[in-house]
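FORM 7B - TANDEM STRUCTURE REPORT

SECTION 1: FIRST PROTEIN
SEQUENCE AND TOKENS:
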Amino acid sequence: MSLSDSPEDSSSSDDFAEFLDAELDSISEFDENNSVLDTESEKRRKVELSGGVITRVITSHSSSSQEEPSKLLGSLPKNTCTHPVIFARFCPRCGKKVEDEFGVAFGYIHKDLRLSNDEIARIRDRDSKNLLRNKKLCLILDLDHTLLNSAQLCDITVEEEYLKGQVDSLPGNLKSTLFRLDQIQMMTKLRPFVHELLKEVNDMFELYIYTMGERPYALAMANLLDPRGVYFNERLISRDDCTQRHQKGLDLVLVKESAVIILDDTEAVWGKDKENLILMGRYHYFASSCRQFGLINCKSLSELKSEESETEGALATVLKILKQIHSSFFDEERKDKLEDRDVRQVLKTVRKEVLKDCKVVFSRVFPTNSRPEHHPSWKMAEQLGATCSRELDPSVTHVVSMDAGTDKSRWAVRENKHLVHPRWIEASMYLWLKQNEENFPVSHSKNQTNLVSNL
């Protein structure tokens, strides 16, 4: 039976259960617009996962029951049903047709699946307990500029033409990191250490992909990162699934926020979930990526014929942090219960260790008449554990300045304090380690403007 043949106003939960079972069994492949997978076996694998997840969600009201899903679906009288799960506009528990606006759409699990808020909370509670019982947390992974970098084939520059002779078109080759994907007219470079990262974190986290890219692109990238289907299964959230335009959110993740960590290069898209975020330095392999972020005078890694360090780069660094956070969260010497712990507090504690012994004063960093404590550099320094001050005193350890000629900068030199560029704070944040101050010198500014303070 197809969705178009479904009963318009069925009052029989048994009839609808049979319809739902038939619908799940009849799914044979993804819609061509939603899949760029190359092989029929890969398509079948994804379809089986989708159908399995829907059945698991629907039958999870009695997860210990051995009954058939179709029997469980019809177990509640129609007039008392709260419609926890909606599939194809029908509630599988009571058979009643439900309005499209009801609940939250979980299109990444199945295009016709919606869950009520109460059901989302119940599943989150159950699945979070299961994760914690297995000493796992949840890790949300952004794609572009975090795990990889992509460019349209038409945007490849003359200086990057040499790459076309180095690409691989077979996602299953885990040794390859540069791919040409003619079906979506793109070239993709995987970030160094990405396969090692995924292998390591898979033992500590349940993994999601969450991208602002469209679903066909997301599926293609997932196939490069996880060609054997080991890490992500159906947990792939794309722009098509987002509940708010241009925003990501943990409302689509079926794990409690207290057990979720996010890796992403863009803080602004995460709204109220920033406390879960580990901000990643952007991976600019292609020239078009630099242009996208206004880095006009910056050469990309491909143009420089260079690459990030595999052992000391961004992904190797963040793996160390993830291991530290995981270890702290599951520390057996802690007295509190596992379910009462919050990974966001662990994140804050670990992050505050980076600059914990530093007292910072800023000079010519903030616009005149602004409130310094609202500036990103001030906030970043405090997140890293530094004490920020507006005034100089003997306890100050660092002056962060854009110009070595300001009064505060000269004071730092005279008093043998550290004088550093604001990039020192940024580098310390991305690497989760206080950086050598000598690598961030401050030069004399040639231009004096009234937009920034001379102090």
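SECTION 2: SECOND PROTEIN
SEQUENCE AND TOKENS:
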Amino acid sequence: MRLTVVAIALGLVALTSAAYYPASQPVTGVKYADKDFLFKQKFFFEVLRNIHLPLQFQEYLPYTQTYITEESKYVNYSEVVEFFNYYKAGGFLPKGELFSIYNREHMTQTYFLFTFFYNTVDFDTFYKNVVFARENMNEGMFIHALTMAVFHHPQLKGFVLPAIYEIYPYYFFNTDVIHSVTFRKMYDQKFGFVSNGKYNVVYSNYTAVYPVEYYGEDKLSYFTEDIGLNAYYYYFMMDYPYFIGTDKFNLNKDRRGELYVYMYQQLIARYYLERQVNFMGPIEEFDYEFPLKTGYWSKLSYYNGIPFFVRNDYYLQGLLLSGQPAEGLRGSSPSGYRQGLLLPGGWIQDRSAQTRVCGLLRKHALR
């Protein structure tokens, strides 16, 4: 035992001495930011500021109405031509419209915009194209494509973007917080703010300002609504966007599928742990064929004030027999709600009838 302790101590001394650099010894392998790097970093901060307002910096205004078209300025010009044609045809989502990367058409447009950025051969071309897109493309799409480009473009390593919850706080902070900052601040200069001498702070209790009980699930709001955790998930999706290829963007060597499964396994494991410490029991099985007991109200709103979609209690995913999308369905569940199927006419508890109805639902959903 004593020999083990001595060996560990000697090992720690060796590691410490190997990691220590005297002040007189220059540190190698470190690149300090020069004037050119700082200019580029400043550009990213400014172009992402007040994303829903026009650019306010005079040096960018000459590039807001045109983009670079010379073939020599792009690595893969054929991909960029797709962007040119789509833009000239008016196919892109207009500014001010709601954007979702899970909308197939929005996803395609985001990819076109991403390749428009990614294929530039130098920063000057990239700079001018970004300014053009900032002023003429949909705001949400612009943020998504620019973030992907900075993450993956070989010439943009080391640059830091503002945190996504600072660029687009609507997706992370409750509506009451946004309202307090943007509206009540107009007539009450001290509302919600505490000065610490350097900057102002507004307090955000994002877990339960207006408590909503989701059959006990609200106990985990401190975890599921955590801003840092949601930002982490966003950046993971930027590192490995599901709609771009692996070979071209050097993602095929990162054990991409294994990392994807591992990340979700870790999230679920942590979620399960939080359930256990809150005495909530194991995670219930999920089945699209049965109503989802627990509703969800995020208390978030888009920048234009439209609230995020609310999933009502006992929501039935899929299509009804009429072929219309199933809306949130409320109703009194019989005991053992998972044994019944909720339809507009009432509950179906016979298993054979459930099987036939669910088969029809799947048939309609695949059309």
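SECTION 3: OBSERVATIONS ON SECOND PROTEIN
The longest strand covers residues 193-195.
The CA atoms of residues 336 and 351 lie 13 Å apart.

SECTION 4: SIGNATURE
Preparer initials: ____
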